[in-house]
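Backbone-to-sequence.
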């Protein structure tokens, strides 16, 4: 299992390195959020979508079939990314690999931090992590993969170079 976790962590690190923006605006958030919605709809699924930049919410949409729990999952996943500047899925995999929790590692309670897939840092090249892109409603690996797929398409990166392997 550690080998597959290590492979995923290496691929997620590549995703985080490659999927960075040169600039990000309110219009970017709107267009990206709309693409996420369309991507999830095409899969016949439902999620809540949240895009925040520099502490400001720029896009939010809860698709029919989601609940207020999805909004809370978004908040908790976003807290992980804002704390660690890594995708929430990468943080969760690191914790699993090291057989620990955020509470044990840093005293961070589950009620406020969810190291589960579905939140990705918005990096501005040469600046750093300036926000988050989050969805909630699918299994955590799928939440992560949807974000990466849409970001890779948006940023013109071949998804085959960035996609996580399908678990066996």
């Amino acid at each position: 299992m550690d080998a597959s976790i290590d492979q995923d962590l290496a691929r997620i690190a590549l995703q985080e390195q490659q999927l960075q923006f040169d600039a990000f605006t309110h219009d970017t958030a709107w267009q990206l959020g709309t693409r996420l919605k369309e991507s999830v709809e095409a899969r016949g699924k439902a999620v809540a979508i949240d895009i925040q930049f520099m502490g400001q919410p720029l896009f939010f949409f809860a698709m029919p079939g989601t609940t207020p729990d999805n909004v809370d999952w978004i908040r908790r996943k976003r807290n992980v990314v804002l704390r660690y500047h890594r995708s929430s899925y990468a943080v969760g995999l690191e914790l699993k690999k090291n057989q620990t929790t955020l509470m044990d590692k840093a005293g961070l309670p589950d009620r406020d931090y969810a190291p589960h897939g579905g939140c990705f840092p918005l990096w501005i090249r040469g600046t750093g992590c300036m926000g988050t892109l989050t969805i909630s409603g699918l299994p955590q690996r799928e939440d992560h993969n949807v974000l990466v797929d849409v970001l890779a398409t948006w940023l013109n990166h071949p998804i085959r170079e960035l996609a996580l392997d399908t678990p066996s």
